[in-house]
Amino acid sequence: MTEPQPLLSAAELRLTFPGRRGAPDARAVDGVDLDIAPGEIVALVGESGCGKTSLARTLLGLERPTGGRVTFAGAPLSYTASALKTYRKRVQLVLQDPSGSLNPRHTVYDAVAEGLRIHRYPGDEREAVAGALARAGLRPPERFFLRYPHELSGGQRQRVVIAGALVLEPELIVADEPVASLDASVRGEILALLLRLREEMGLSALVVTHDLGLAWNIADRVAVMYLGRIVETGTVEEVLTSPRHPYTRALLSVLPEATGDPLVLAGEPPDPSRIPPGCRFHVRCQVLASGEAERAGVADACRSRDLPPLSGGGGAQVACHWARARHSSGEAIPTS
């Protein structure tokens, strides 16, 4: 049985920013393949500075890639103004901070209606706004029409932002840290809302987050990103119950429910304009530092041999010399 065609696909995607004062270009996205199927929720996970937001902006058409291509519904993304306007009706962004993305001078009604007015919606605007607010969990919607953002709770503001994305009935949303600024008691409600929207509307989603716990609660598939590349991908169960990449294991080890001691990574991710040779994680890798990679016979490869980008879909994949050596030998990889 053939797999369904991806709704959104990135192939060999690259995004570089010119270096300042003669410095090398910064490779924010450095050869990424990523597929999102219809109705699928994919979590893009990694530390700050690993390229998640740059990748999301490129997928949205907000940045034009330096190399590679973005395909939506089987057609390459065009960067003409009219094509991008049509595309952004079908693919909507939900930002992290609702306080920053909502104009304090606009009522809830005007905030949600803005997209309809930009795209010259031919139907009943009031009915569309009410329907979007109701789907986002703000009921009865008319009670919120004339309210301003400062009159709402944080969770209600995030629901208004989601309603503003839903009002155009998109096929996919890109949610950048959608619950990071919310209290713990509200996060579950917003995640449950996103799951319900997937069931009711067939909505696909790319959820950008640093929190693997959030990925566990909402995603079908996880893509772990480090220094411009996806280094591990698979179903949420494959990646979070049997992590293979040392970076993924370190991210998992700091979750409250994790067993064992946290794996503290040394330093910050390297500058994307000075990506190290070999595995780009090797300068911080606890497996290399502990001598495990040496015992597996891959320490030199870790330091000198680059790994090819992972393919966009399919089963569990990992870009790690040590993990591949362990897998090929049939040796089990510990999860903690």
UniProtKB/TrEMBL annotation:
What range(s) does the ABC transporter domain occupy? 13-252
Keyword Membrane carried by entry: no
Q: Which CDD domains match?
A: ABC_NikE_OppD_transporters
- Which top-rank group of organisms is this from? Bacteria
Gene Ontology molecular function, alphabetical: ATP binding
What are the protein's UniProt keywords? ATP-binding, Nucleotide-binding, Transport
Task: Give a Pfam family name.
Answer: ABC_tran
Q: Which family does it belong to?
A: Belongs to the ABC transporter superfamily.
Q: Which PANTHER family match?
A: D,D-DIPEPTIDE TRANSPORT ATP-BINDING PROTEIN DDPF-RELATED, TRANSPORT ATP-BINDING PROTEIN
Task: Output the NCBIfam families linked to this UniProt entry.
Answer: oligo_HPY
What this protein is called in its record is: ABC transporter ATP-binding protein
Organism of derivation: Streptomyces beihaiensis
